Amino acid sequence: MEKIEDTLTVPIQLTDELRKLASQAGTYRQECGELMTKAESLGKLVRLIARGSNGDSLCMRPMRRIIPELEKSLNKALILVRKCRSTSVVQRVMTILSASDFKRVNHLLDNAIADITWLLNISGAGNGKFELTGLPPIASSEPMMSLFWENIAILERGTEEQKEDAASSLGLLARDNDRLRRTIVEEGAVIPLVKVLGEGTPKAKEAAALALRCMAKDADIVKQMIADGIAPAFVKVLINAPMRLQIEVTRTLCEVVDIDPSQQDTFMEHQAIRPLVGLLGESLEEPEKMQEAFAIDKIVTTMAANKIAHDEISDCIRTATSGGTNRHPQMVPKPGSAGKPNVAYRAGLVQGRPVADHGRGLSQRELSRREREGESAEVKAELKAEVARALCLLVKGNSQTSRSVTETKALLCFATLMDKWKGAVRFNSMLAVAEIAAVAEADVELRRAAFKTTSPAARAVVEQLLRLAEASDEPSLQIPSIHAIGCLSRTFPARETRVVKPLVRQLESPTDGVAAAAVVALEKFACTENFLHKEHSQAIVEAGGAPHIVQIIYFGENRAKVAAAALMCYLALHVGESEALALAEPLPALKGFSKSLSVMQYPYLEKLLPQAMARLQIFQDKGTGSHTDISLDF
């Protein structure tokens, strides 16, 4: 980018030339004298900009519009003044000058003076005082530009109250108008908003976060916002800030990632995962099963810590009592602490008595903790809901971020929130688990690491998914839970019959979406790609799933029909000899489905259906015949 000094070189030269030529005018001396006066004023103003020019003191965007217009005005004035140098009557007749020409050029120079004066005022580069002086001539055709520039200048140089108002104004302007939103970002509003987010008052920070959220409505804008540094600023807020501000920032993060999923990696690179998980698990108690799982580790760790602390305290007491003139503070156990390491305190010994601790005031961390504890339950729930939504968007379709999330205590937190909390907190937590499960379905390493059967966190999550899939009467919770169980189908051993039975029961759900989700999930259990497909297929048939699958093939909606037909094909191939399967009479259903147009849209069914029908023909003709004989005898 061109330096400011280089940008101002040409205007300074033009003002000097205009002043010199105007002083040498042979005709229209009075009019040229007025131009010379304006040239002197412009020269002083431009030099004032040059002397105070640095990246912090000038509003760069308006300046880069004002300077080119100034050059155009000065060139027009120079053309006019050059025609006034000759005193010849013939030359005067040939040039054909009039008073209106000077009036027009004077007006242009007056506008230039007003523009530069306005620029100096909002930049505080003139007398060092920040001032707003109304609409500059440069923005007469686009009045909104002046409003943008002034609000951006306020964000950079105004008082804290002014910054809050300016951020709110920019947010309102950007909220409902795509063109204004794009223009605000192009004019450089993001960087000062990020600065306010990091250094302003709590109210100003919230207003800045809201303004940034209103701007994040387009992928190109989001990329510009990322380039302007919103990611590290957001992470800083997530690490340590009031809850209400963290809510606004998390919402903005959700908007950014939702609009442009490619920013998932950006936020992971800036270490956003762990602060989010920390907020998710704040003030949560671990489930009892997790406490049991970690009990041995805690006991071992505590015993080791107690031994080390006991040895250190004994040494400190021995040193304090043996050296009577020792004036240095020592580590001694607090009375009544029984030597516990977490209740030791530093004390000096004066005449055999411990003196008070140094610095009785509360630390900043303690004050922040108390402030957070004092927030209402609604605010805490709102924060957890937004954090869960942010994690859901960050892991969606991304193996790397999903792995980063599962390496923390996030799964345990999700299980607890799905169990103990209601509303948006539970819903968003369940969606996040469903997204992680969807990624794990295609990522073998993630599936083995995060959802191994010996993992207490994974077991807790699966228990909550099963509970929501079966016990919940809300399809919005049931459907994603069932999808998640289906995605994890390859992680369940053959003995886990408790997983298949709840899904089979959902096949007769009156809600089409729930039944369809159950069919899709069971298909993943029975498909050939599942190593335990035979065992799972047997479990589905034994749980009474075959008749319901046949009914869905006949009467279900299109997607459910396709999944049910595929599931029945797998059952026929894997447990085609089953009497329970024969009683459901799946062969006529598959024959009817094979004649539908749906088969043509799914090439894998064209190969699967003939194999399944042939196998059913082999094993179930006998079963069908005996069934007919019994009916006739009866």
TrEMBL record:
Taxonomy, superkingdom: Eukaryota
Pfam families in UniProt: DUF7792
InterPro entries membership: Adaptor_Cbl_N_dom_sf, ARM-like, ARM-type_fold, Armadillo, DUF7792
Domain DUF7792: 5-123
SMART domains to which the protein is assigned, alphabetical: ARM
Gene Ontology BP term (one): cell surface receptor signaling pathway
Compositionally biased spans, kind Basic and acidic residues: 366-375
Residue ranges, annotated region (Disordered): 320-339, 354-375
Name of this chain's protein: DUF7792 domain-containing protein
Origin species: Ceratopteris richardii
